[in-house]
What does this fold into?
Amino acid sequence: MTNAVGPRAVFGVIVPSTNTVVEHDYWTAGVPGIAYRAGSMYIPNPVMGDDADFEALLGQIRASIDTAVRDVLTAEPDRMVMGMSAETFWGGVEGNAAFERRLRERTGLPVTTGASSCRAALRELGCRRIAVFSPYQPIADREVGRFFTEAGFDVAAVTGLRCPTAMDIARVPDDRLRETVAALDGPDVEAIVQVGTNLSFVALADRLEQELGKPVIAINAATLWHALREHGLADRVAGAGRLLREH
It folds into this structure.
């Protein structure tokens, strides 16, 4: 028994201090016997209104991640999950691989990142031509597109919502997300992918999949799916998209 509330596994989850959505999405999924211990990466200045601001935000993430990891390790987790996605796309496929290596070396644990989870999910679903949206600025969207292209996907478009602050990501309403997906969708698009873990999109993605008849991948659903399956746990989850429900 790992512990009383997580007898099957405890996942350490690293999130920005401004993020209110990741832990909510994981707990709402209701996977029995899995517990989550979050560590916060301190964001003293959450402004991300342009490319320079976004790079500065990443600098704050990089300056505080070691402390967040240190704190999580005191709970003796079984796996590390990076609950902030932009950093995992930075530098393309090799940048993501290097980030994962650093986190594995720092913790001695298996690692789940947003970039690797989305790649694995698309391969599992058999999708190649994709459209992507994020809450980011253009500098980050270019890195997202670079990762998926290097990973072998045909990227039809990457759209950024350009949220002015990190907290505003969690304030994007469903109607704007619906409009974004509608603008990205087309007969040649096999799947739509959402990145940016503080966007509340899991439940809406599940509904949109049924309406559109194609995969709509919410990144928090993808990272939970990856963490579970890589950990040998086959639980199926309703209400969080086709990936967790059927794969």
Summary: The chain has a mean pLDDT of 97. The two ends are 26 Å apart (CA to CA).
